[in-house]
Amino acid sequence: MRNPESDSHSNLSSSYDFVPEAGPSCVTLDKAGHSNGINKENGYCTPASNGTISNGSLTMGNGLAKHSSSITRVSLPGTTLYDDPYLDREEFVRLVIQSLRDVGYIESAATLEAESGYSLEAPEVSEFRQHILRGAWADAEPLLIELGVTDADALLDARFLIGKQKYLELLEARKTTAALQVLRNDLAPYSTALEQDELHALSSLMMCSDPQDLRRRASWDGASGNSRRQLLDDLQHYIPSSTMIPQRRFSTLLTQSREYQRQLCLYHNSPVNPSSSSLFSDHTCDKESFPRITTTILEVHSDEVWNVAWSHDGTHLASASKDKTAIIWRIGLEAEPSSRDCIAEFILRDHPYPLGCLAWSLDDSILSTSADHLILLWNTKTGALMKTLENHAETVSALVWLPDGSGFMSGSLDRKIILWDMEGEPRESWNDIAIRVTDAAVTPDMRRLVAVGMGYNPPPTLGTLARANVRDASPPIVSNGNGNAVGPGPRPQENRMIIYDLKTGQVELSVHMEGELTSVKISEDSRYALINHAPDEIHLWDLEEFRLTRKFTGQRQGHHVIRSCFGGIDGNFVISGSEDRNVYVWHRDTGTLLEVLEGHGLGSVNSVAWNHRNKRMFASCSDDNTIRVWEAPVYAGELLRGFSISASEPEMIGKGKGKVKQPWAYNYGGL
Fold first, then answer.
1. Which among 63, 64, 53, 81 has a CA at the least distance from the CA of 229?
2. Residue 442: which H helix or E strand, with range?
3. Phi/psi of residue 386, each to 5°?
4. Do residues 563 and 452 lie in contact, with contact meaning Cβ atoms separated by under 8 Å?
5. What pLDDT digit, counting tens, does each position of 444-491 carry?
6. What DSSP character marks residue 241?
7. DSSP structure string for 479-531
8. Span 32-85, pLDDT tens digits
9. Could you tell me whether strands 305-310 and 316-321 are parallel, antiparallel, or unpaired per DSSP bridges?
10. Of the candidates 1, 577, 524, 34, which has an alpha carbon nearest to the alpha carbon of residue 307?
11. 571 near 525, Cβ under 8 Å?
């Protein structure tokens, strides 16, 4: 908004009557110019005294020298910036004024205000901020309409937020009677139908034993914390941003710009730090820093390697093979591959069948493996077998440890999902679920379980596991034999993705998919599910919006179980094996195919795993009996490293794939 013109129209006299505090724009410049709070004597600056602020309230003391200046107002043609029709000059200048104040250049902000003729915010905005920060609730509420909150629902919501803060502060001050009046008079009348549950929760806070208990149960940091500033941020959603500029808006725009540049950086895989970030240049990552060179080949297994998984600390790699063994490899942390130790620390031989799945406990003390219908728990410090679990009747196709470390879940072709504790005791069993599970994963926030599988049978009743939001891509069709559809009918081998609420077991979404589903992985932010989908596709599903976001193509998958994963420092890569013996890497947000990595021998690359600790390292395993560790190129003198053991280790037990006539029907004797 523009300051009123002075009488001379050329000079503006500024009187610095009070001192705004530097910081997050808690006090606005509604004068032409203001002092920065220092006395100037003989060219030296001394801090002003007796100025204090408590939870945003400003108290000015004496000892401040008045200062006046004459600043020429600059008149520029037009209203836009740099001839850009989308950049409004007034908005830009007001953001600069706010930013100068945020970093402490109070007098410079006042000078720009006077020179441009633009005021940061209107006086009523400053008053509203101060009323909220001082807890003057009765003075703040009437200003909402003046600030542009005219929508009836928005006004109710804003008043409810103010009343909630007032109520909590009264409870904290042990003024229970006054708090009860606020609950009845200020909160109940303003609560909407959606806020009734919150209103009941607020009323229960009356029973808190002390202020600390109140703050804990309400997830609130108290009147002396940042709660009032948080309230201002929440109220900002209802006040037009042109009236009350969001706090540190320029910083927000810079953050958005940085995030946008990172999204455009196809090979982004470096941590953001002050030394690598500059406003003077756009962000970019060198392709050479991407892990696309094999630095280590692990050659101990005597048959196809079907799965690999890194420990959470990134120092160990577990592999599962058709040769009926799992191996725990110790991978050194040395940055230089040529000096790194890669040792087969334990070879776990007590499996009666080839291995399909493996998973590390949260603390990396236990490795769980599956061999046909069996689950085996191993002590990773000693290599000793701790327990064998036989609760499943068919092949165990999924093992996943809970993110809180309390236990793990298993899924099987027998239509069971079982929850186990750390000791391998069953805690809960979901029986007769709608699919024969081929893989499953739990979101890191522990809200959901995502399962994929085949042989879908619609639940006959609306039980706990059957209250489904069921979605079909199209109704099932039955052909009359001439290629003509005659109407809906059953799918004999229907494939499904099912999203469960992990706490209740309720089905949130059930989606029919054409083609076999062999793998599911969840992004670290719990937002996306990555699903291998035969033939030749990988699907990215948004778990918040329940929609297919993107398809990744190029790899080959038609006959074997292929497992993909997320990779990179931000999970911004999608990486997968392929039946053409290559490793494929895409940029997650654009779907761009970045790399096709060669190196494995004949057969499929069955599984890939990105190191949890070293974000520039991943591993792949193949039908060629090997595991490859991939890293970014180093100096030209680096030599390819290999590791093998003597002929006394497990013998070859035959050739063949992990899947023959149908998925998960392993051919133990070979083709």
1. 53
2. strand 436-442
3. -90, -40
4. no
5. 999 999 999 998 887 654 334 433 344 433 333 233 333 333 334 444
6. T
7. E-SSS-EEEE---TT-EEEEEEETTT--EEEEEEESS-EEEEEE-TTS-EEEE
8. 333 333 333 333 333 333 333 444 434 333 333 344 457 888 888 888 888 888
9. antiparallel
10. 577
11. yes
Of 338, 337, 380, 333, the C-alpha closest to 360 is 380
Q: Which of 407, 504, 399, 518 is nearest to 447 (CA)?
A: 504
Over residues 279-334, the pLDDT tens digits come to: 888 888 888 888 999 999 999 999 999 999 999 999 999 999 999 999 999 998 77
CA angle 594, 597, 601 (to 5 degrees): 160
Taken in order 325, 326, 331, 337, the sign of the CA dihedral is positive
SS3 226: coil
Cβ neighbours of residue 236 closer than 8 Å, sequence gap 6 or more: 244, 246, 247
Please give, one letter per residue, the 3-state secondary structure of 534-592: CCCEEEEEECCCCEEEEEEECCCCCCCCCEEEEECCCCCEEEECCCCCCEEEEECCCCC
Peptide bond into 535 cis (omega under 30): yes
Cβ(476)–Cβ(490) below 8 Å? yes
Q: Which of 543, 530, 380 lies closest to 452, judged by CA?
A: 530
Residue type, 6: S
Q: Which residues neighbour 3 within 8 Å (Cβ) at sequence distance 6 or greater? A: 12, 32, 113, 114, 117, 118, 119
Cβ 148 vs Cβ 237: under 8 Å: no
Beta bridge partners of 509: 499
Note whether 395 and 372 are within 8 A (CB).
yes
d(CA 458, CA 410): 21
Place of tokens 């890669």: 342
DSSP tag of 292: -
The position carrying tokens 């808006």 is: 249
CA distance 449 to 433: 13
With a CB cutoff of 8 Å and minimum separation 6, the contacts of 407 are 401, 419, 420, 421, 422, 427
What is the full DSSP assignment across 41-57? ETTEEEE--S-EEETTE
Closest C-alpha to 656, from 321, 297, 370, 318: 321
DSSP states along 588-621: TTT--EEEEE----SS-EEEEEE-SS-TTEEEEE
Q: How big is the chain by its Cα radius of gyration, in Å?
A: 32
